[in-house]
Amino acid sequence: MIMKSASSLSLNSNTSSSNSTVDTEDQQSLPPPQQPKTIYECIRLIYSRNGSGFLSSRCYNNFELNDEIFHAIRKNEAMSLFLQDGLTQLNLGDKYYVWEKQIEPGVWQGAITIQFNVTDFEYWFLILLVSQARVSFSQNEKVEDFELYTKMVSATFARELKHTVENDQWEAVGEAFFNKGVDFFTSRWQPLEAVLPAFPCKSSNVEKVSGDMPDKGEELALRRLIQFSESIKEIYPPGIIIWIVSDGHVFSDCIAVDDSKVNRYFQGLQQLYANLKPKNANPIRFCSLPEIFQLANSNFNNSLVADVELGHYLGTEIDSQSETCRKILVTSCDTDCGKLRQDITTKGHPRLALFRGFSKFMTEDLALHPKVSGMARKKFKKIVAKVAFEMIKRNDAYSNLVELMFPFHLRFSIHAHCNSGPKFGISLLSKTGENQCQPINSIDDHKEPQNTDLLHIPTPWHNTIVKIDDRDVYFVIKSKKVEQEIENGNGRGEWDPINLHYMFFSK
């Protein structure tokens, strides 16, 4: 791919590239810059501003923001290059580029990067970033006592949604971290915004789930999020918006699910929400990689990622748009540079433990998959290791992408965390209340619900829902456990095609 300087991409410049603040002799004496692997590694700041100062900003890659940055932008903005699609580019000394786009009269959204040779792909991504990242939030009149609202929001989150773990760090440090994120919105009297990477697709393991479309489990999860949003609105009138950012296409080929099934699941999830949505509110929004990358509207040139190779090991159906999204993801936000392989061969390294955890999970999830179930054990383990490695790399890239596109959002997670921040674990299935759903390991457990898996929060897409003896409570369990009890004559039951859950009646 041909490397281009940022200024060479200019269509209509009001100044020449010779207006750099570093003269030619100095430039010749500088060592050639070390090229970063991805655009994510180049980014130092994302912000919105007006003519008086920054309205919002977030630093990346250990960058420290100071007042001089804004003054330098204002002082030199007349020297900006005007590029395609309304993007401008400004040199700040010999270290940084400033990329901006005016999003409304008097308001600009921008990013600061190190100076580097900009490819066509990176230029496309920068336009996407300064146009689509959720950076700009209105500033209403000064809010008195916004900290009081923050404390009430925080208490409601801890009481209604947070998943608590052993040695939980919420009270020690997590609550203060969470409150700082809430302050960003309450101080502006704007709806809180949270991002939840979740709802990818149903597991391919037929012993876990009862189909490949949303069912009662997803309904209960959405109802819980809606109920939480209503609780927030009662104490904080602007309310909350929860962005469900589906990670289905990030991992679908790794978890043995066809891209077309991911598409159908995500469409079904949105239709389910449309049926559940409150009449006068819309607290849940949906997006996935195609929406984040604006593929339908951006005229993305697929040749920019044509040479990118991804590891596909399970023979799943791949559609071109989903594959393009995965290639954009790793090209823009993968920061591995070979370190992951070193980490997972280092005894005692946390990434080694993560790799083993992924491997164990995928060994279970792929056990019945026709592509690998007949393999010799040694070969199967090699495939699982490759899949686990690929998943960790993509997960890291995806986390980086979410940080860029949702820089100020509260980070909800369906994985168990110690809740010290920045990610906070939530339980999608409530153990109390009107839609109570208890995790159980077997049908026998329902009288005294227990779940011995303390490392994973039960989710609808790795389990099924059963109602036992017409009790008011639901139970989340592996589908095989229900089927076995019916087959063994320990009760009678069947799948309820109307309510989309199992019914089981004890003997």
UniProtKB/TrEMBL annotation:
<protein>
    <recommendedName>
        <fullName>Dit1p</fullName>
    </recommendedName>
</protein>
<feature type="region of interest" description="Disordered">
    <location>
        <begin position="1"/>
        <end position="35"/>
    </location>
</feature>
<dbReference type="InterPro" id="IPR007817">
    <property type="entry name" value="Isocyanide_synthase_DIT1"/>
</dbReference>
<dbReference type="Pfam" id="PF05141">
    <property type="entry name" value="DIT1_PvcA"/>
</dbReference>
<feature type="compositionally biased region" description="Low complexity">
    <location>
        <begin position="7"/>
        <end position="21"/>
    </location>
</feature>
